Amino acid sequence: MGVVMRRSRKHVRWLPLTYVPTVVAFARRRRRLGPPPAPVTIAAVYATPGVIAVALPRGRVRVAVAWLAHMWAYKIAFETPYDRPERLRRRLRIDEPIAVDRRIGLGVPPSQRLQRRLRRPPRLTPLDRLASGVYLLWEIEPHLALAWLLHRHPGQFPGAAVRMAATFDSTLIGYFAAPTAPPWWASELQGRMDGEVRRVNAEVIRALRRERRPGTPDDHQPGSNPWAAWPSDHFASALSAAIALAEADARAGAVGFTYAAALGLVLVYTGEHYVIDLLLGAALALGIHGAGAALTGRTGRPLEAAAQPGSRSARIRRVAR
What's the CA gap between 78 and 260, in Å, rounded? Predict the structure, then answer.
């Protein structure tokens, strides 16, 4: 074991890795120093996964670290439109998604209809807490799905990871081109939908921390980018994960689709997204999956077969050892 560790360290290219702390420091301080143009920031952070792929030896560690680096790059790119909030505010869409959702909800936006019927403000109900738990689980759910695929079905992992990464990244087009306020922001801060739609997750989290719940617009933290609602990266990534799981195992797929459906309801109920946001996110995930499957379908099964313990390639490896 020690010999293997020493060999793996020798194969690490340390010089390229110096780029990582440099770009992390740049990303953290860019707003205080005066943010550079968005293309500069995006190019700098999205180079990080490539640097890691070059610097680390082949193996699951490199795959995992490169994926984490990509998600960090996505997070920074997600924040970048809000680097200059005053400029973004001039293009902000507030009423357009409400108008679409009002048609979907037959006269009342679904977020408003659900909160009007199911909430009991100012009391936080068990449903509010359960919904917040489902919402917070999203922070790890897509990554757990990929980790399971890497462990159990490594041949299907590359295609699933590429499609999920493309799904995440494609949502950025909407955040840059059409900044859109989520239901809670439009309701609580702008008085739309009669001010009835509250940000349930924020209220639950503050209650758990024993902090004062948001009572005025000033109580809300804007976050890294509060106007990145259209399309929903939450629902798009959860659906992408469900499709990838279903391709590998029907039972895992059922779990994935159940979670995606529950998350969709929760996103609307808690005021995080409009229904139209979910539909656009679903269209992205399905479109990318269809295109990716067409490109990788011919190689997916051979790769999966080669990874099985009883496959010819596995037998060759055992003989070689």
Answer: 21
